[in-house]
Automatic annotation (TrEMBL):
SUPFAM superfamilies: Glyoxalase/Bleomycin resistance protein/Dihydroxybiphenyl dioxygenase (SSF54593). Gene3D superfamilies: 2,3-Dihydroxybiphenyl 1,2-Dioxygenase, domain 1. This is VOC family protein. InterPro entries: Glyas_Bleomycin-R_OHBP_Dase, PhnB-like. It comes from the Bacteria. Coiled coil: none annotated. Residues 5-131 form the PhnB-like domain.
Length: 137
């Protein structure tokens, strides 16, 4: 069965962002740098940039990311949000509070017309998130 995992692109912030997300979601974080593989970057000052990072939470969520070296075009993420949802309201509220730390609320985590709770934010790394609580029926 295929899986769908968000893969975030950063410019020199992937390590800090993924360590932040690990503090939010918990789990195991694996990071490979460009310097770990010969010839991956032309500028040796970029050897410590993240070529690939993968965070696997205790709940099985997987979030991946990398830095974009200077020799490649970089466009900040736009038109996409990472969504976290479920039926555990205290857990989701805790994730909301952690993700919004240092970021900005786009839509407060409140009760929408369809019920439950829903909110949108942009975290301190410029990534848009949606958090949705839907109580069990």
């Amino acid at each position: 069965m295929p899986t769908l995992n968000p893969y975030l692109s950063f410019q020199n912030q992937a390590r800090a962002a993924m360590e932040f997300y690990q503090s939010v979601f918990g789990g195991d974080l694996e990071i490979s740098t460009f310097g770990s593989y010969e010839g991956m970057v032309q500028d040796p000052s970029e050897n410590d940039l993240v070529m690939h990072a993968q965070l696997t939470s205790p709940d099985g969520m997987v979030l991946m990311a990398s830095d974009t070296p200077s020799g490649m075009p970089y466009t900040p993420p736009a038109g996409i949000s990472v969504s976290v949802s479920g039926d555990d309201e205290p857990l989701l509220e805790g994730l909301w509070n952690a993700l919004v730390d240092g970021g900005a609320v786009t839509m407060p985590f409140e009760v929408p017309p369809w019920g439950g709770r829903f909110g949108m934010l942009r975290d301190k790394f410029g990534i848009d998130w949606m958090v949705a609580y839907s109580p069990e029926s």
